[in-house]
Amino acid sequence: MGIDPMKVLCGILPESLLLVYVGLGLINIKLSIRNYIKITILYTIGLLVVRYILNFAGIHILILCLFLSLLFKIIAKVDWNLAIISSLLSLILLLLGEVLVYSKLLTYFGISIKEFLNSNNLILFNLIIFVTKVPLLICAFLIYFFEVNLLNSVGDSNAQVQEF
Q1: Distances (CA, A) of 93 to 23, 136, 161
Q2: CA torsion angle for 76, 77, 82, 87 (degrees, to 10)?
Q3: What Rg, from alpha-carbon coordinates, does the chain have?
Q4: End-to-end CA distance of the chain
Q5: pLDDT over 60 (residue 161)
């Protein structure tokens, strides 16, 4: 299966940006737009390499979680604990949305996941991709408008988990 530039632009890049924003936002780490974009682009490149070039099906989630943690550590300059927690939180929310939505929507449309991923129907692809991101979108909304977070951390650098 090749890499479709429209699927990357319309599905994978927004998903990556949501993962980065929500993951860091849930632990109260705010970055500049430039740093969000850096992490998003690097994560997207890593995702494409792991998923489509190296074809590590199944184990790709673990590899991408570690890669996202590494990006958070290097670019966001957070502790390893926070980097790992942040990447796990965002990937758990992503997987939650995918598990809940893929099974229902793909059954409704009568197609398998393999047919869906190999499909050239960009409208169906975008519809399902964006609906699976509902948990991430809700969290992003709560983080942006209500400053919801799960940890009390310091900010852009030298972030530490504080005792409750």
Answers
A1: 9, 6, 21
A2: 40
A3: 16
A4: 48
A5: no
What single-letter amino acid sits at 97? G
**Residues whose CB is less than 8 angstroms from the CB of residue 132 and which lie 6 or more positions away in sequence, other chains included:** 94, 97, 98, 100, 101, 102
Main-chain dihedrals φ then ψ at residue 111, nearest 5 degrees: -130, 155
Residues in the chain: 164
Across 139-148, b (16+ Cβ under 10 Å) vs e yields bbeebeeeee
* Count of CB atoms situated within 10 Å of the CB of 2: 7
- The span from the CA of 112 to the CA of 128, in Å, is 13
**CA proximity to 34, closest of 95, 75, 94:** 75
Tens digit of pLDDT for each residue in 45-84? 999 999 889 988 889 999 999 999 999 999 999 999 999 9
Nearest to 36 by CA among 47, 48, 25: 25
CB 126 within 8 A of CB 7: no
Q: Give the ranges where 26-133 is alpha helix by DSSP (H).
A: 33-48, 60-75, 80-109, 113-118, 122-132
Bridge partners (DSSP) of residue 159 are: 78
**Residue 116 burial (CB count, 10 A):** 17
